[in-house]
Amino acid sequence: MYNFYTYAFLNTPVADLELPLGISDRIFLIDNAGISAVVEVGVSLESIQNDDEKLTQAVLSHDRVICELFRQTTVLPLRFGTSFASKESLVTHLESHGEEYLKKLHQLNGKSEYILKFIPQTPKEPTIANETGGRQYFLAKKQRFKTQQEFDNLQAAEWDNAVEQITEIYKSAIVVKPENEAARIYICVSLEEENILAEQFITWQKACPRWELQLTEALPPYHFI
Questions:
Q1: What is the pLDDT of residues 53-70, one digit of tens each?
Q2: Rounded distance, CA 39 to CA 29, Å?
Q3: pTM of the model
Q4: What whole-number distance in Å separates Cα of residue 61 and Cα of residue 38?
Q5: Are 132 and 140 in contact (CB under 8 A)?
Q6: R_g (Cα) of the chain, nearest Å
Q7: 160: phi > 0 → left, psi -120 to 50 → alpha, else beta; which?
């Protein structure tokens, strides 16, 4: 019995939809309860999970399929590795969750996800000459430490202000700030708001000179499902 590897859920009917090649074969649709599941038969994750190259290619193919579908219609993207043991189990799942998925597809209709990255910068440190010794060397080191502290405080304040402003404008924004990595804010906007977002991005960058800001292209709304 083949498993049904599932990429995304769409509204039914889906007119003039071009279905791309999947991980290893053609993909197709299974419809039920007003929802279309985008599936591929026979994807064996067990056979590739110990092969880094094949696993990477499978992950990239999964994202490619979703992005190609996203450029054509509203999608409810699923995480890599989502599969159902049979067509019957997939249909049962759609019957149980169809209303929930239809509501989410309606909410995401015409919207894209953007990732706003905040990459922390470092201050330019003054060079302390090797020949500097004694009290002068100590004072130079002390001043450098003070400069770093002031920079860190201002950088933190810029981040806090940016988060406050962005989450005030975009109520559904998701803020992620891991240790020792670039901070990210996930924003979901409609097509009509994309030009406004581009203008706001310039304003945010000017307000955060101690950060490098990057804004991705439009992506399927992974973080808002």
A1: 999 999 999 999 999 999
A2: 6
A3: 0.85
A4: 14
A5: yes
A6: 24
A7: alpha
